[in-house]
Amino acid sequence: MTLITKIIRNTVLLQMLLCGAFTIAQNTSTPEDIHQSVQTQTDLIFDELVKIRRDFHMHPEVSGEEKRTSAQIAAYLRDLGLEVKTGVGGYGVVGILDTGRPGKKIAWRADIDAMPSSEPDVVDFASKNEGVRHICGHDIHTTVGMGIANVLASQKEKLTGTIYFVFQPKEEINEGASAMIADGLFDLIQPDEIYGLHVSPYPVGTIATKAANVFNHFTVVEITYKASNNQDAIVDFTKSLMANAQTYGPDHKFWDPNSVFSLKLGVTHPNTIFKDYDALMHELNVKQTNDTLKMRILLNTSSKERLDAFLPMIKNKIETSAYAKDLLSVSYNLMPGLPVMETPINDAALTKASLKSITNVYGPQSVISLYGVPPFQFSDDFAYFQKEVPGVYYFLGVSNMEKGIAGMPHTPNFEADEEAIRTGVNYFSSMIIERL
Ligand SMILES: [Zn+2]
Ligand SMILES: [Zn+2]
């Protein structure tokens, strides 16, 4: 998960865990034989997977330097009998599990990089690489990907089609997916569907997702006027214009971080306040040079459509105001080459079908449906794969309030309940089998 600006606080997490919004899922289903075999194999390799995860955790590597991680993955996949390609878009690894029988081709993606962090690690198997830590949970993602490869390889004789495992580097800097694609990923593999996950603060035993976008869309709006003697009036006008343009006023519960996971207002409620919004974060930044008066503000919207509509609306309001003659431009400007962050957009039909296949085997309590997107500044470059191949991005619950584990990525005390590895391997091995 790429974080552009951190705005949330740990209190959100704490509140969420204390509010009892979720319960830990129990498996009450009666699985078909193959899904029973999936669970048996997952249980068999679980301790080994935990060891693998802890090894990655102790040896984290930042974006673009995932040499050791990549080598471990490649060796593991080769041992399983998969065809393995390395060095795809940097330290990317691709494993191919070809059943030898015709059928659908499905890709599973896991990101593998860690992050710079000098805060002390909170677990016994602390990072041995000073200043680098797995606080975004990609060690869990990598391990789940390897576990699914193991489980599906163990069921190969019962399967049709081909499963691809895409281990992607450089996610945290938003470069790895594009780098793998530019390096010919989709010449190497031709998936019909692609899936992936990210750890999240939902309870262990659950996964969560929604059709369409799973993150908000955000960018920086930049309004440039000619330098003017009338600066104060122009600034006041623009401030008021922007304040009126946003969906919720300053006193609305939208701005309370605890609302995100509240049962009545939060993202799990069908009528959540996080469904349709334009929100402006932080203060308007004003900068005057000899020639120009520039104002910048971070815009968060609940969809790309709203983001696209916001800029022309603002431009039109200025052009029909007393300050029309002073206006030079209205534009998006997040960072060079990245005016608008791409975010994962889930295919509606695949979201529905894949969730159904999971609830059929593991019960309805295994899935949390999401109806909105919080105004955080997170994204994931899995979006770039989804632009090429239809797919679904899931959140894997890793929190456990009984154990005091609050799995919020990018926080210094990030921790994950390792039972989530079992959940991820079981649910998504079964899901892929059903999709093949
Ligand atoms: Zn991440
Ligand atoms: Zn991250």
Give your account of this protein's structure.
With 436 residues, this protein is of the alpha+beta class. It folds into two domains: 304 residues, Aminopeptidase (3-Layer(aba) Sandwich), CATH 3.40.630; 116 residues, Alpha-Beta Plaits (2-Layer Sandwich). 33% of the residues lie in helices and 23% in strands. It is built from eleven helices and 18 strands. The strands form five sheets. Strands 2-3-7-4-8-18-9-16 form an eight-stranded mixed sheet, sandwiched between helices. α2 packs across α11. It is elongated and about 75 Å long. The protein starts with a strand and ends with a helix. The relative contact order is 0.21. One zinc ion binds next to loops.
Summarize the structure.
Helices cover 33% and strands 23% of the residues.
Topology:
Blueprint: E1 2-3, H1 10-18, H2 33-58, H3 67-79, E2 83-88, E3 92-98, E4 105-111, E5 115-116, E6 132-133, H4 138-154, E7 162-168, H5 176-182, H6 185-188, E8 193-203, E9 207-209, E10 212-213, E11 217-226, H7 231-245, E12 278-288, E13 292-301, H8 304-319, E14 327-332, E15 345-346, H9 348-362, E16 367-369, E17 378-379, H10 382-386, E18 391-399, H11 419-435
Parallel strand pairs: 4-7, 4-8, 8-18, 9-16
Antiparallel strand pairs: 1-17, 2-3, 3-7, 5-6, 9-18, 10-15, 11-13, 11-14, 12-13
Bound molecules: zinc ion (2 copies).
Signal peptide: 1-25
Cofactor: Mn(2+)
Binding site for Mn(2+): 136, 138, 172, 198, 410
